[in-house]
Specification:
This protein is α+β, with helices and mostly antiparallel strands. 21% of the residues lie in helices and 40% in strands. The chain has three helices and ten strands. It has helices at residues 2-25, 134-138, 158-164; strands spanning 31-39, 45-51, 56-63, 76-84, 87-91, 99-103, 114-119, 126-132, 144-149, 152-157. Strands 1, 2, 3, 4, 5, 6, 7, 8, 9 and 10 form a ten-stranded mixed beta sheet that branches. A hairpin with a 5-residue loop joins strand 1 (31-39) and strand 2 (45-51). The longest helix is centred in the N-terminal third of the chain and has 24 residues, at 2-25.
Length: 169
């Protein structure tokens, strides 16, 4: 019996270490595309996503609380009828073209920073966040997209976003 106990000790320690490392390491969803924002002719906000590979199933808009703990409450949540590959766009105020608002966003609050990203049902892929305020939206002209690549905020034409955002991805 003493031999059995000696063996269980290292096995138990190995199992506890594995559980602790897994719990502390945290998981992130791999990025397969980029989210951006633009505005319609009337100035209303429009979400855009370009998938560099794979797909997303929906998108979420949330207030960004910076370093606050916890997950901010979702302001808007949309689902697409089919997996989204390539480029897509939809009105954040009245979605159409395959997009359904699971939770329609309210009025965007001036001064509040928001994040928009794409997601998959099984958390296999995501479209990277874009962060913006209402002032950022007001600075955009229809046909311009604001998106982020790493720490760099970029504003380009919709065509350039669609055709070049995935270069060197």
């Amino acid at each position: 019996m003493p031999t059995l106990r000696r063996r269980r000790g290292p096995l138990l320690l190995t199992a506890l270490t594995a559980v602790t490392v897994t719990a502390l390491s945290g998981c992130t969803v791999p990025i397969a595309g980029l989210a951006g924002v633009t505005v319609a002719a009337d100035g209303s906000p429009v979400g855009v996503i370009v998938m560099c590979h794979d797909h997303v199933d929906g998108a979420t808009l949330h207030p960004d609380d910076g370093d606050a703990t916890g997950t901010p409450e979702s302001e808007g949540d949309w689902r697409h009828d089919t997996p989204v590959t390539g480029f897509t766009s939809w009105s954040l105020t009245s979605p159409a073209d395959g997009w359904t608002a699971e939770k329609a966003p309210g009025r965007l609050v001036p001064g509040q920073r928001y994040g928009l990203y794409g997601w998959t049902e099984d958390s296999s892929w995501a479209a990277a966040h874009v962060y913006f305020t209402t002032a950022d939206l007001e600075a955009l002209a229809p046909g311009q997209v604001r998106y982020e690549r790493g720490d760099e905020v970029r504003t380009v034409s919709t065509d350039e976003f669609r055709e070049k955002a995935c270069e060197d991805f």
